[in-house]
Specification:
The chain has 536 residues and is of the alpha+beta class. It folds into three domains: 10-185 and 355-439, Periplasmic binding protein-like II (D-Maltodextrin-Binding Protein, domain 2, 3-Layer(aba) Sandwich), CATH 3.40.190; 190-353, Periplasmic binding protein-like II (D-Maltodextrin-Binding Protein, domain 2); 473-534. The chain has 22 helices and 16 strands. It has helices spanning 13-23, 34-40, 68-75, 82-90, 105-113, 130-136, 144-150, 152-160, 162-167, 196-201, 210-224, 267-281, 294-302, 317-325, 371-380, 384-392, 410-413, 421-426, 447-456, 473-499, 507-516, 519-534; strands at residues 9-10, 43-44, 50-51, 57-63, 92-99, 119-122, 181-182, 190-195, 253-256, 259-262, 308-312, 333-335, 361-364, 399-402, 405-408, 437-438. The strands form six sheets. The protein has a four-stranded mixed beta sheet. Strands 1-15-14 form a three-stranded antiparallel beta sheet. Mean pLDDT is 88; it is low at 1-47.
Length: 536
C-alpha cells in the first residue's frame, strides 16, 4: 500500500447527522477537542451529565477478550491514548482485569469466586438462561433505574432510537447492558476477496455468478499453477459461507416472512454442498479447508498459493497487498459481490450482523460498590464527545474537520512508525467492539477495502436476519442441549459431504438425524422468542 498517496478522508457530514440524531436533539457537529474540555474544566452534555466526575474513584473493568489486560497496558504507553483521554475527560480511572470469554472455564471461575468487576463487557445474550438469569443470579444488575439516574446520554439515545431500546432489553422489559450498537453501514464488514491483477492478466471478469467463480478458480489452477485457488479460515464461517446465499440458504437460523428457518436442512443447502464437493474434488477448494487457521490462510494468500478468500475490511486486502508489493508491484486484491446463480440477481444473503448482536456490551456487576461511577463512565461513550473520541480519536491529533468532513492527519495516514491507518488509530480511538454507537464503517486502510464494503452491502440479508431474540430461562437449557448435538452433527456431516466421505444422496437421512435430535423443537423455541421480541 502507498501510504503517502492514499488519502483516508471520510465523508462525514451525513454520518455526524445520523449519530447526533440518535444522541441529541441538537444537529450541530460537536467540538470534540480536549482543549475545549480543559478550558472549561468540565464537559457538560446537553442531557445534563457533568464531567469530570467529582469523586476520586477507580472502577474495575473486564472485557470478553482473553489477554486484553496486556493490550490495555501497552496502550497506556501511547501519548494521548484513548485511556488517558477517557480518564481526563470523565475523571474516572479504570483498573483493567483482563478478559474472559462468555461460558469459558475462566469466566465461570470468576463468577464462582464472587470477585466480579464493576464493568464487564461481554456477550450477555449468550449467558446460559439469558440476561434475565444473569440478573436473577446477581451476576449483573438490572439497569432501568441506573439508566434513569446516571445515564442521560444512553437514555436519550434509547428514546430517539426505539429499535435500539427494543434490542437491549429482555422480554420482561429489563435493561441489562450498555450496548455496542452499530449503524447499518457498520453491520457489514466481510465478504469474498480475489486477486484482481490475476483476473486482468488472464482477461477474466470479476466473478459475480457461481459459474463465473468456477471458471475463475479453474483458470487460476491451470494457468497460474496455484495449489489452493480458493482458501478460507473455516468452511463454516460464523455467519455465512460466501457461497451459500447463491442457493437461497444460510448456515444456522434466519427468518422468512416472520417464520424461523434452519438453513442447514433446506434443499438449497444440499445444492451448496454439492458445489463445494465438486470444487474440492477438482482441487479448486483448499484441501485443508476443514482445519486451516488464519496464519495459514495468510501464508497461502501471500505466497501465490491461493487467489481468493473470504475476509474483512481491515487486515486482509491491505495486509496481502503490502506483503506482495515488493515482489509483485502490480498486485491488487478487490472485494466481489456475493455470488448468485444468474447474472443480475441480487444476492439474498451475505454477511451482516445485527445492529446489536450482544458482543462487547457493558454490564454492571450485581455487587458493584461503584454503580454511579461505572454508569457515568459507560454513559460518556454515548455523548457527542465520547462518540467522536471512540470513532475518530482526538481532533487536531488524529483528524481535522474540513467543511463537515473528517480528514485524518499524517499521524494516521502517513504514520512515522509505518503502522497502517487502522493500527495507528486503534490506540487513540476505539473504532469498534466497545460499548458505544458505531456510526459508519470501520476506517478502510486502502481504497480497495472501502470499495469492497460497498459491494458486500449489496444483498437482501437484512430481510432475513433474526433480531437479538432471547430465550426464557426455562427454554434456554432445552435449546442449548439440542443445539450442542445438532451443531456437532452439522459440522461433522458437512465436512464428510464435501470430502466425499459421505455421499450426498444421504442428505435426506442426515436431515432425519437432525430432526431426531430435536432441530424442529429448536426452531419452535426460536419462533416463540421471535414473537416475544416483536411484541416488546
Amino acid at each position: 500500500m502507498n501510504r503517502n498517496r492514499y488519502s483516508m478522508c471520510t465523508a462525514l457530514l451525513a454520518t455526524i447527522m445520523l449519530m447526533l440524531s440518535a444522541c441529541s436533539s441538537e444537529q450541530a457537529a460537536p467540538a470534540a477537542t480536549d482543549k475545549g474540555a480543559d478550558a472549561k474544566g468540565t464537559t457538560d452534555t446537553p442531557q445534563g451529565a457533568i464531567y469530570p466526575f467529582k469523586k476520586n474513584v477507580t472502577v474495575s473493568y473486564m472485557t470478553e477478550f482473553p489477554g486484553s489486560e496486556q493490550g490495555f497496558k501497552e496502550e497506556l504507553k501511547i501519548e494521548n491514548s484513548w485511556q488517558q483521554t477517557m480518564e481526563k475527560r470523565t475523571g474516572i480511572k479504570l483498573n483493567h482485569r483482563g478478559g474472559a470469554k462468555m461460558n469459558s472455564q475462566e469466566f465461570n471461575l470468576i463468577l464462582a469466586s464472587g470477585d466480579l468487576p464493576d464493568i464487564w463487557t461481554n456477550d450477555w445474550l449468550n449467558f446460559p438462561g439469558g440476561p434475565e438469569k444473569a440478573i436473577e443470579l446477581g451476576y449483573i444488575m438490572k439497569l432501568n433505574d441506573v439508566i434513569d439516574k446516571y445515564a442521560p446520554n444512553l437514555q436519550k439515545a434509547l428514546k430517539d432510537n426505539p429499535e435500539m431500546a427494543k434490542s437491549i432489553r429482555t422480554d420482561t422489559g429489563a435493561y441489562y447492558a450498555f450496548p455496542f450498537y452499530r449503524s447499518p453501514e457498520a453491520q457489514i464488514y466481510g465478504g469474498p476477496i480475489i486477486r484482481k491483477d490475476w483476473l486482468d492478466e488472464l482477461s477474466l471478469p470479476v466473478p459475480a455468478t457461481m459459474d463465473e467463480w468456477y471458471t475463475v478458480l479453474k483458470t487460476f489452477k491451470e494457468k497460474k499453477g496455484v495449489s489452493a485457488p480458493f482458501t478460507l479460515r473455516t468452511m463454516f464461517w460464523e455467519r455465512t459461507s460466501a457461497f451459500q446465499g447463491a442457493y437461497g440458504v444460510m448456515n444456522g437460523f434466519y427468518q422468512e416472512n416472520g417464520k424461523v428457518v434452519f438453513g442447514n436442512i433446506q434443499p438449497g443447502y444440499k445444492q451448496f454442498l454439492t458445489t463445494m464437493h465438486k470444487w474440492y474434488a477438482e482441487g479448486l477448494l483448499d484441501k485443508d479447508f476443514a482445519s486451516i487457521d488464519a496464519k495459514t490462510v495468510d501464508k497461502k494468500m501471500t505466497t501465490n498459493a491461493s487467489g481468493a478468500t473470504v475476509g474483512w475490511t481491515n487486515g486482509y486486502i491491505d495486509k496481502y497487498m503490502d506483503a506482495l508489493k515488493a515482489t509483485e508491484p502490480k498486485v491488487e486484491l478487490v472485494g466481489t459481490t456475493y455470488p448468485t446463480l444468474e447474472k443480475g440477481q441480487r444476492p439474498k444473503f451475505g454477511q451482516m450482523d445485527n445492529a446489536y448482536f450482544g458482543c462487547c456490551s457493558g454490564a454492571i456487576s450485581g455487587n458493584s460498590k461503584n454503580v454511579e461511577a461505572a454508569a457515568r463512565w459507560l454513559d460518556y461513550n454515548y455523548s457527542k464527545e465520547g462518540q467522536m473520541l471512540n470513532m475518530f480519536g482526538i481532533e487536531g491529533l488524529t483528524y481535522t474537520l474540513e467543511n463537515g468532513q473528517i480528514k485524518y492527519t499524517d499521524l494516521i495516514t502517513k504514520n512515522p512508525e509505518g503502522k497502517t491507518p487502522f493500527a495507528a488509530l486503534s490506540g487513540i480511538a476505539r473504532i469498534t467492539n466497545h460499548p458505544f454507537m458505531q456510526v459508519g464503517p470501520e476506517p478502510a486502510t486502502v481504497k480497495q477495502a472501502a470499495d469492497a464494503v460497498k459491494l458486500w452491502q449489496n444483498t437482501d440479508h437484512a430481510k432475513y436476519l433474526l433480531p437479538p431474540i432471547t430465550q426464557l430461562p426455562e427454554e434456554s437449557k432445552e435449546i442449548a442441549k439440542i443445539l450442542n448435538e445438532v451443531n456437532v452433527l452439522v459440522k461433522e456431516s458437512e465436512i464428510k459431504f464435501i470430502l466425499g466421505d459421505k455421499p450426498l444422496d444421504e442428505f435426506d437421512a442426515y436431515v432425519g438425524q437432525l430432526k431426531k435430535l430435536g432441530v424442529d423443537k429448536a426452531v419452535e423455541l426460536k419462533q416463540k422468542a421471535l414473537e416475544r421480541y416483536q411484541k416488546r
